[in-house]
Amino acid sequence: MTSPTPSPGAPSEPNRKSAPELWRRIGSAIFLASLTLAALVISPWTFLLIAIASATVLLWEWGSVTRQTGGDATTIVQVACVTAVIILTALHKFELAAIVFAATFVTLLISGYQKKTPRDAQLDAGGLAYVALPAAALIWLRSDPNHGLVSILFILVVSWTTDTASYAGGRTFGGRKFAPTISPKKTWSGFFVGTATPMLVGVLFAYILGGTSPLALALVALVLAFSCQMGDLLESAVKRSLGIKDMSQLIPGHGGLFDRIDSLLMAAVVAALIALRNPAYPGAGLMIW
User: Which of 238, 261, 235, 264 is nearest to 250 (CA)?
Assistant: First the structure.
């Protein structure tokens, strides 16, 4: 017995299902971007609040997939640590923030090795670093009174451009897979398009800002875009090792918050490392060349 063949003009069942999914993805992306931009623009303190809220969600997701519970004592310790690190970084108490992070990291490792398997202990401590370091990096960059806002906006636009251009490049050109054992859908064409296209963002920001080199900022955008690609692959590798598809189902059409901002997390850390060339004014250290 054969299944009925749809008429040439009728949409197929997958297409009927994919349209609502696409609109859910677009709607979720617009909502999250708007919320982030509003918090970023209003003040460093509203950005701090959304950073703490986002870190809490990320650590809940991490606990849910690594320990099958997002609200246990380990999550509470992690959230308390990241909150303290974010606040101390905003207050420029960097040494104390480093002490709090290091002490919590070591405590999670030691207690994990005593009560759990070595892999579980590494996941507990690794989850803390995965969230705390990008959060502290973004808060530190935003604290620059002159270029903090534009530096975060630059990182966000580079991240969004990398994700969009990678998807468009892969769909348009196809070709060989980039990392088939980690992320089977990624192609070399998507990787190159997604990494190179943000250089235009660097040039655009340079002309808007003035007083900085378009070439240098284009190269910074290139480095950050590459970091975005590696951040995306890192999360894919984590999910593959855990045997899951998404970190959660919190965001319609996207999965979890980790799935939405995986590329941003590594880019934030790399941006902070670049900004160390001007520790007193990190935003300028990233943006002014």
Answer: 261
